[in-house]
Amino acid sequence: MAQKKIVIDPVTRIEGHSKISIHLDEQGHVEEAYFHVTQFRGFEKFCEGRPFYEMPSLMARICGICPVSHLIASAKACDQILAVRIPPNAARLRRVLNLAQIVQSHALSFFYLSAPDFLLGMDSDPAARNVLGLAAAYPDMARDGVRLRQFGQSTIELLAGKRIHPAWVVPGGVSSPLAAESRDRIVAQLPGMLAIATRTLDWFKSEMEKFREEIRSFANFPTLFMGLVGENGGLEHYDGQMRFLDTGGRVIADYPGASYAAHIAEIAHPWSYLKTSFYKPMGYPDGVYRVGPLARLNVIDSVDTPRASQEWAEFRELDRGPVLSSFYYHYARLIEILYGLEKMEQLLSGPEILDPHVRAHARVNNGEGIGVSEAPRGTLLHHYKVDRDGLITWSNLIIATGHNNAAMNRGVLQVARHFVHGNRLEEGMLNRVEAVIRSFDPCLSCSTHADGRMALEVELRNAAGEVVDSCRTR
Amino acid sequence: MSAPAASKVRLATVWLDGCSGCHMSLLDTDERLIEIAPLIELVHGPLVDLKEFPEGVDVTLVEGAVSSEEDLHKIRQVRARTRVLVSLGDCAVSGNVPAMRNKFGAQAVLKRAYLENATLDAQIPREIIPRLLAESRPVHEVVPVDVYVPGCPPPADLIFSVLSDLLAGKTPNPAAKFG
């Protein structure tokens, strides 16, 4: 961190939602790089004074891509404020909903946002390197992506009544049981979706050889990893313990979400609206860790569905310890799509999924609640305090993209060092800088605000801080 | 992408201070969007790699409220270059969720997130990133708006109906779709 000060006028030239700056030393070598997130809303403050039972629906508005994640983490925090154990079928239905969203969100990330890089090429014409270009050149692949995302979204609608920002998940459970007809409609689509997941995974594995350079340089370094684990260390997205792995792959902490504050701290940066989380006992930056699909597949000991379990075992053979390259987030995402579909099949197969007891009622019994779940992009945590009337007095949200902030910044630096030489910028380099961030599938809407395919402005500065070249995408 | 045909409508989408839900609801039109794709030239938006907001846009769908200096600059540019400006969704139409911070003020929300809820180097970010406006405002308080499409998010069917009207050269009336 030799050169910490960046002097770029904060108002002009920021057209996009995030921005990267790269610093060069006197020899023209990349010295430092920063990933700047440029929007902020302030949910932690403006929820104050509002009744806790509004929180799931309000917090869902943090993100239109993964509103279900916020619904679930928020409702779990509210369950604790009620001090109830929710009916078993409420938990089951929340699980199905969460998996449907993981499937649709991963499909959006893989097919709509990143597949153009894989199929059309990292160095291909930027004018056509998008989902429309993909649809024109590879219509079957594009259609698979549309169908998979549509399946996830329509499943959310069948369960919760609305695709985006449904109000169905409530403190104490869910507001209505699943109808047999809706269950049948979801189940009927699963074989087709499993076929899409399988062929996409097979295709991606066969293509990975072409991305050796990217695999080597896309945020490929040791960090800690964190994610939820279920019983027997199984893959888990709804409940369970939070687990940290050290850089050698050893478990260094397994703890309930309620004690997160002893394990996770956040550092603020002057140059971004996105704070960075770190593992508190090790401090910053030693305690930098990653979350999300790659981290989840690294921290677990088992997967309890047959096909995803096989794929997981194969995935873990990529490295001797934890799988380190962030390029493999894409691979992990496809395995999780397969898992999500298989797990939904399991959960929907028994008659108990139609059990009408889906909500526990109570008044405020606890002054505090902490809800933790796995969002598509990683561990999500909502923490609320309420007064005796149940009005929110304080809240803290720790969101997936914040956990990954340090790794994304280091990843940008690593890619820049690998692909940028001298005082020249090339479009292919820019796209790779975008692509390393894309591999994390950051949700800046969540952490602050932004879109899936972010506008990037890259400036190249020399040791004196002068702009020697700049380039913008989109 | 193909060259613009005279009959194609130049469509843009813009994302200010929102959650992306309105854009996701647009994607939720699923295959219908592919059906009307031949009528549209998509010239700007989150899924397209085009740099600048271009001149001579027929229709722009705007998601989100106007919350930062960057949003303000952007929406003025968009208005100047767009024939029919559509406020898409409640944040654009009324300020909705982003405007909930107005009763506290920008400094108070920044203080909570970066001074009180940060454990290390607590500080309010101020380098490079755009400053927040004192208040988050709906689009029509900043520039004239031609069509309002409410909803959080507006349902995919409503968005599709409005888009179809606009593509046919008609003035949509989303209010008529309610009740």
Which key phrases capture this entry?
heterodimer; A: 474 residues; alpha+beta; globular; B: 179 residues; alpha/beta; Rossmann fold; five-stranded parallel beta sheet; 6 helices; elongated; disordered N terminus
What does this structure look like?
The complex is a heterodimer of chains A (474) and B (179). With 474 residues, chain A is an alpha+beta fold. Among the domains of chain A are: 92 residues, no CATH class; 183 residues, Cytochrome-c3 Hydrogenase, chain B. Chain A is built from 15 helices and 15 strands. In chain A, strands 2-1-14-15 form a four-stranded mixed sheet, covered by helices on one side. In chain A, helix 7 packs antiparallel against helix 11, helix 10 packs antiparallel against helix 11 and helix 13 packs antiparallel against helix 14. The relative contact order of chain A is 0.20. The N terminus of chain A is likely disordered. With 179 residues, chain B is α/β, with parallel strands linked by helices. Chain B has one domain: 3-Layer(aba) Sandwich (Rossmann fold). In chain B, the strands form two sheets. Chain B has a five-stranded parallel sheet. Chain B starts with 8 loop residues before the first strand and ends in a 12-residue tail after the last helix.
Q: Outline of this structure?
A:
The complex is a heterodimer of chains A (474) and B (179). Chain A is α+β, with helices and mostly antiparallel strands and 474 residues long. Chain A has 15 helices and 15 strands.
